[in-house]
Amino acid sequence: SGAPREALHARVAFCLDLAEDAARAMRYDLLGDGVQLDDADRVRERAEAELAAALEEEMEDD
């Protein structure tokens, strides 16, 4: 009978769906300070500002 195979397939499919849903629900902290991926523009702008400040500081030291 194919019942055990079908039960295993159903369990595997459930686990794969659960893992996929969990991965979609994750939010990644890009800078370690609570910034989420949906704030990517702000993260980019902040990184650019930090880089500009570091370059200015380096030029002042020279």
Topology:
Blueprint: H1 3-25, H2 40-61
Architecture overview:
It is a single chain. Helices cover 73% and strands 0% of the residues. By secondary structure, the protein is an all-alpha fold. It has one domain. The longest helix is centred in the N-terminal third of the chain and has 23 residues, at 3-25. The protein starts with a helix and ends with a helix.
Short structural description:
With 62 residues, the protein is an all-alpha fold.
Helix content: over 70%
What's the story with the biggest beta sheet?
none
User: Number of helix segments?
Assistant: 2
Helix vs. strand class: mainly alpha
Global geometry: rod-shaped
H-E string: HH
Beta-strand level of the residues, as a percent range?
A: under 5%
Low-pLDDT runs of 5+ residues are none
Radius of gyration over alpha carbons? Answer: 23 Å
What is the typical, i.e. mean, pLDDT? 80
The tally of structural domains comes to: 1
**Multimeric state:** single chain
Which keywords apply here?
single chain, 62 residues, mainly alpha, 73% helix
